[in-house]
Structure formats: C-alpha cells, structure tokens
C-alpha cells in the first residue's frame, strides 16, 4: 500500500514537472522577475497595442507636416543657392520657374568662415548663460520663499506668475516704453533723483543689459513654478530629521533641497537653455538687434538673411537655421550624457 502511494506521488510529480518544463519551452517565456517576455516583431506590437498606435498616429502626422516637412525643406535649401531672384514666383498672370541650383556644402563653408557667425555665436552663448543662470537663481530663491507658510502667499504667487500670463510681445513692447530715453518711466525716476538719463537701448552695453533683464523677467515665472513643484515633492520628514540632528538652514538647503531638486533642475535648465538660445521676440522687438548689431543673436541673424537682407538669401538663412539646430542637438546630447554619468537618466 505504501509502495503504491509512493509510486502515485512520484508519477504526479513527474507529470507536474513535465507540464512546467513544457510551459517553460512555450512561446511566452518567463523573465527573471516572473513577468512574461514580450512578443517579438513589429506585427505583434501593432496587434497588441493597436489602440495606442491609433491615438498617437494623428499627433505624429501633424508633427510631420508642421515640423518634419519644413525641416527637410530647410536642409535642402541650405544646400542650394536659393534667393528671392531665382526661386519660383508669380507676377500677375506670369509664373516664373525656379532657377536655383544645388551647391552642396558651399553655404556652410561660407557661413563658418565668416567672422560674423562667430561674433553672433559668442554673444548668443553669453546671452544664454547669463539669462539661464540668473533666472534659475532668482526662480529658486522665490520658490523657496513661497514654499513657506505666510499671510498673503496666494497673492504673491499670482503676482509673480503674472508675467507668464501676459503674451511675450506685449511685455516686450511695455518694456520698450519703460526704456525710452526721453519719456521712459525709468529715466523719469532717475531724473527725479538727480541722475542723468541712461541710454538703455542706444548704447551697446546698456542694450545687452536691457535684453537680459527683460528675458529674465519673462523667464522667472516658469522657473519658479517648476522649482516650487519640486520643493513640494520633497518629504518634510527629511527636514525635520536634519533639524533634530542639528543641521543649519544652509546645510539643510545644500544636502536636502538641492539633491531633491536635481531632476527638476536638470529639466528646466535644458528647456530654458533651448528657449533662450532661440529667443527671437525679446531681441528683435526690443532692440532690432541694435544698436548697430551689438545684440544680434543667431536666430535674429537668420531672420535678417531671409526677410530683411537685399536680396533675401533663403539658402543662407536656412544654413543659419540648420547650424542652430545642430548646435542645440550637440548641447542636448552632451547634457544628457553628463546626466547619465550622474545617475539622472531621462
């Protein structure tokens, strides 16, 4: 009887082992964490997640039309000698075909060999670094203050976010009136204190200071809101434990606040850098790149080549645009690589 029972148990165990081994040899193998491995092939992915692809398809199509096609067209024009004299155009009932030709990398050679490009690049980098660093420091300071409980905090938040709600070109025109040398409010206030008028937009140095100040004023709300959200996500228990251990305010800020904001800070710095590098409205509407060309950055120079220069150089403008894109892509790749070395993978 005992022998029969032992044989039955052994037989059942053998059947279970066979089933388990057969299941292991099946198409859905288990991974180390117990989850089944995903099926291979694009067809299986489309069949499994067809609804997700259907939802994403309209967005991909729109982005391809409004971003992809202009980008490809711009790269192509940068390899030609297209200008307003040889592109296709219609005059009355007469249609003139395009006569521009493919010139390869000649435009890139000409732009990179032009001292103007390097002058614009140096000022663009200085302008970007100054704006982003000042905006980040002021935004962090304001976010730290608004993260505390005090009377009227909601009103202060609304007042500090207000520049973000106003359209950028409206804000720039308002600042242009404030900076007016003869009738501007700033010079009126200085005149009341016995200080001579400051040529805010008429002197190259003051003009650079003015455009940086306006761009910082426009960028602080975004930086403050993003960093404030990051501050509110840091557990309060960390500050309580550090305070009980005798950590001073600066030590708590250095060892808790800054590490807790690392992910948010890296993201907002990257976005702010890209936006500032291409901040066309502030420069063009405030100073028109002047006085002279002292505040001209790369993107305003590209605009000038296409719409202000005579004849309008579409190929040259496209070349400037492609170089701007290449510089930002290189910066983003280097930035991402540095984050991965620090353990911040995104």
From TrEMBL:
Q: Which Gene3D superfamilies match?
A: MetI-like
User: What domain of life does the UniProt record list for this protein's source?
Assistant: Bacteria
The UniProt keywords, alphabetically, are:
Cell membrane, Membrane, Transmembrane, Transmembrane helix, Transport
Q: Where in the cell is it found?
A: Cell membrane
Q: Name one GO biological process term.
A: transmembrane transport
Membrane topology is: Multi-pass membrane protein
Question: Is S-adenosyl-L-methionine included in the keywords of this UniProt record?
Answer: no
Provide the leader sequence positions. Answer: none
Answer whether the UniProt record assigns the keyword Transmembrane to this protein.
Answer: yes
Record-linked InterPro entries: MetI-like, MetI-like_sf, UgpAE/MalFG_permease
Q: Where are the transmembrane segments?
A: 50-72, 121-146, 158-178, 209-231, 261-286, 314-335
Please provide one cellular component term from the Gene Ontology annotations of this protein: plasma membrane
Q: What is its main location?
A: membrane
Matches recorded under PROSITE patterns = ABC_TM1
Family, as annotated: Belongs to the binding-protein-dependent transport system permease family.
Q: What is this protein called?
A: Inner membrane ABC transporter permease protein YcjO
């Amino acid at each position: 009887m005992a022998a029969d029972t032992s044989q039955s148990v052994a037989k059942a165990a053998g059947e279970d082992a066979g089933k388990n081994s057969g299941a292991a040899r099946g198409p859905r193998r288990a991974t180390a964490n117990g989850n089944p491995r995903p099926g291979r092939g694009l067809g299986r992915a489309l069949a499994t997640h067809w609804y997700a692809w259907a939802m994403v398809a309209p967005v991909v199509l729109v982005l391809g039309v409004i971003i992809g096609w202009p980008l490809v067209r711009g790269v192509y024009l940068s390899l030609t000698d297209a200008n307003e004299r040889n592109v296709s155009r219609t005059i009355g009932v007469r249609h003139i075909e395009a006569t521009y030709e493919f010139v390869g990398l000649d435009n890139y050679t000409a732009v990179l060999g032009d001292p103007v490009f390097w002058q614009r690049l140096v000022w663009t980098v200085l302008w970007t670094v100054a704006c982003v660093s000042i905006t980040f420091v002021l935004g962090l300071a304001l976010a730290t203050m608004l993260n505390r409980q005090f009377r009227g905090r909601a009103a202060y938040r609304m007042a500090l976010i207000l520049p973000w709600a106003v359209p950028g070109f409206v804000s720039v025109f308002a600042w242009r009136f404030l900076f007016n040398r003869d009738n501007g409010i700033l010079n009126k206030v200085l005149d009341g204190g016995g200080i001579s008028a400051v040529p805010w937009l008429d002197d190259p140095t003051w003009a650079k200071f003015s455009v940086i100040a306006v761009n910082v004023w426009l960028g602080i709300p975004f930086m403050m809101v993003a960093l404030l959200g990051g501050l509110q996500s840091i557990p309060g228990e960390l500050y309580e434990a550090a305070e009980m251990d005798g950590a001073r305010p600066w030590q708590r800020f250095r060892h808790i606040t800054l590490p807790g904001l690392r992910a948010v800070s890296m993201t907002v710095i990257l976005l702010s850098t890209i936006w500032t590098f291409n901040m066309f409205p502030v420069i063009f509407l405030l100073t028109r790149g002047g006085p002279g060309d002292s505040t001209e950055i790369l993107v305003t120079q590209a605009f000038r080549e296409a719409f202000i220069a005579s004849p309008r150089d579409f190929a040259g403008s496209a070349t400037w645009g492609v170089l701007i894109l290449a510089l930002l892509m290189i910066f983003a790749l280097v930035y991402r690589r540095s984050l991965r070395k620090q353990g911040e993978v995104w």
